[in-house]
Design a protein that fits this description.
The complex is a heterotrimer of chains A (151), B (378) and C (289). With 151 residues, chain A is α+β, with helices and mostly antiparallel strands. Helix content of chain A is 33%, strand content 30%. In chain A, the strands form 2 sheets. Chain A has a 4-stranded antiparallel sheet with strand order 1-8-3-6. In chain A, a hairpin with a 3-residue loop joins strand 4 and strand 5. In chain A, helix 1 crosses helix 2 and helix 3 (109-118) packs across helix 4. The termini of chain A are far apart. With 378 residues, chain B is α+β, with helices and mostly antiparallel strands. Chain B folds into 2 domains: 11-94 and 106-239, no CATH class; 250-374, no CATH class. Chain B is built from 13 helices and 16 strands. Chain B has helices at 19-28, 88-91, 127-141, 148-155, 173-176, 208-214, 224-239, 250-255, 262-269, 275-279, 325-344, 354-357, 365-374; strands spanning 11-15, 32-39, 42-47, 58-63, 66-71, 95-104, 107-112, 120-125, 158-163, 188-194, 199-205, 220-221, 286-292, 298-305, 315-316, 319-320. In chain B, strand 4 and strand 5 (66-71) form a beta hairpin. In chain B, helix 9 (262-269) packs across helix 11 (325-344). Chain B is globular, with a radius of gyration of 22 Å. Chain C is α/β, with parallel strands linked by helices. Chain C is 21% helix and 29% strand. Chain C has 7 helices and 15 strands. Chain C starts with 10 loop residues before the first helix and ends in a 5-residue tail after the last helix. The chains are: A alpha+beta (151), B alpha+beta (378), C alpha/beta (289). Chains in contact: A-B, A-C, B-C. The interface between B and C is large, with 59 and 50 residues.
Chain lengths: 151, 378, 289
Amino acid sequence: METLESILAEHSFLKGLEHRYLKLLTQCASLVNFSPGQVIFTEGEKARQFFLVRHGKVALEIHRARRGPITIKTIGKGDVLGWTWLVQPHHWHVDARAVELSRAVSLDVPCVLHLCETDHDFGYEIMKRFSHALVQKLKSLNLQLVDFYDD
Amino acid sequence: MTDAVLLVGDRVVIEAGHLQNLLQALINTGFQLVGPIIRNGDLVYGELKTAADLPVGWTDDQESGTFRLKPRGDEAFFGFGVGQHSWRQYLLPSRCRLWHARRDGNSFVITSNRQEAFRYAFIGVHACDLQAIAIQDRIFLKGKYIEPSYREQRETLFIVAVNCTQAGGTCFCTSMGTGPKAVSGFDLALTEILTTAKHCFLVEVGSGRGAGVLRHVPHTSATAEVQEQAERLLQKTAAQMGRQMDTVEIRELLYRNYENPRWEEVGGRCLSCGNCTMVCPTCFCQAIEDITDLTGQEAERWQRWDVCYTLDHSYIHGGSIRSSAMARYRQWLTHKLATWIDQFGCSGCVGCGRCITWCPAAIDITEEINAIRKSDSA
Amino acid sequence: MMTDLKVQFNQSTSLSDPMLSYPYQIQRVRRESRDTFTLTLQPASGPNRFIFLPGQFNMLYLFGVGEVPISISGNPADTQNVVHTVRAVGAVTKAIQKLKKGDVLGLRGPFGSAWPVAECRGNDMVIVVGGLGLAPIRPAICDILAHRPEYGNFELIYGARSAKDLLYKKELEQWRSRFDFHVNVTVDSAEPDWQGDVGLVTAIIPRACFDLFHTVAFVCGPGVMIRFVVMELLQRGLKMENIFVSLERNMKCGIGLCGHCQFGPFFICKDGPVFSFDRIQKWFNLREI
């Protein structure tokens, strides 16, 4: 039987996370679905949850007057949706919109932050995974600046 | 005819048959009369030469997206509401040349600027439209910059107001505090009294000029009975309004409901046709156009009425700020009822109902405001 | 019936009809980058004296083509020359780009609100600009430098896409060589000969040097840049009433009578283009306003 714990364990972001930490994390977790076009969060809002995407595609957008929403990244299965919740002021920096039907595990931000504070070993495991993922993102963003496809 | 000097605030009675004398007296003083007429089966404003040019014996049926003229069955001169025209087409015409210039070597020289004004007398201005003129006075005459064409046109204007003795299907002047009684801003105000026994006008003097013109018109002093009759007619009109709008703290209501889902809903119905702006008596957006002839030697700058529903209206290089129909409808309504108050110290809406009558999608601003109040997040 | 009158250059006439354009002759054209150029103008005839406040704009008219609002970029102390930096993006500005010394443009103005340079004396000044945003700010920089002792720290953070897009390169070097003016120039990506920073202006704000309790910030650039820069400044602890921004909307008359430049209750041409951020904060966060 699929439990919330087994669903968490499946997600590549939490790969290798010990069983007892997965169990802790289930306190903060719930399953969510997004319909195509659904707005998940908007820039400036307080970040109350972040998401582990299990299925589908979500667009990260920055809205510009006259040009409308500009998609700066799309993410899908195995990705994490939402990073700026990690640091002060815990607000979203971009808009997120489901491009197609998507499914995710929703993780409550105050809950996760509290777990990190009270169990530093757990906190370290989470931060290790975030650091790794952020480094990958930065490497990719760096390349987005050098006219990668142009001679 | 009494020879007593008339003062502002005085009331007299003139017989219906002598309305023509009033119009003639104005013509003799050099005024060009404009007022309601029927043209091609429609109620519009146009040139008046005699009292018979008025829509005598006509009335109107108005509802959302509906306007019908029908015979009254009596000979009332002013037995109707407002049509699609408003008076602003005379005060700042829909096309107005600002200046003409021609090339002069490397440079250019301006050879002529604005047109001379007409001496208009408006006949039959309803209280709502009187307030609309007062609002436009604030916009064009009381700001940091003055609109020269409007000022010139406004200076000579003579206004014969008419108190409504019936309310229209889309009227809500009582909600906006603009009617049905004309209170100020007119030279003369008429209330038409038509019974089986009599047909006359109670005339209130609003200015020295009005008093002056009235001296050439046979009149008698107004009895208490006639004044009471007029008062009762106005009360009846006030009770008959086809619409109402709760304006309590409406600015604050709209300021906190910019993201109310109702905008998306009405945006889906709005055609962005701009009819509402064109019939609205207070709308004032202008487009400035610089044109040239084929030789490129002569150039002109023109001003013409513009409409905030076009993509062009909010366009800066790159695109339009208000690209969705929803945003453009929201702009019009929040400007009219909320931001206008911050800009000019009064509402932009006079409750004339024209936008409700002339919207082809039958969008009703009183209904929209009610819906926003109901779903107000506060 | 038209009255035939030949309009002479006369400041007082402009007060009675603010829609009249007056001929100004181009004294000098300087190319700043591929699509941006700076014009120096003087009246084609009549007295030569143009007074403006930093942040104001003129309506520039090309005979028979059209009129555009352009910020004044000159030194306010120079009352003889009117300087405009123009980017060629539309029909009118592309046509103006073709003009040479001696050609004539129509001008009316100045219009709009100003950077509060005089009121800010006694404060540290932080100016954050991006792209063409340096052009409307330059008069404020000139004015602050002209009264330099009356201010505390003075810092400029200027970002552009690449070194090729930088405006006023010579002047930037002069400013950088001063000891009392800290000039940061940063680009998004660069060739090896670039000596300055690479990165967004937002990345420089955390290390900018100013006294939190005695600082005023001026921000000018595209709307998205203003949005994220103000966010960083607020994060540093600056108050909204001490942050000034310059906004842009479609302007046609320039005098608050045509309705086009509305931004919420404000007319950008008349209540702006310079605003304190606290005044417009509510509207700035709404979309399609």
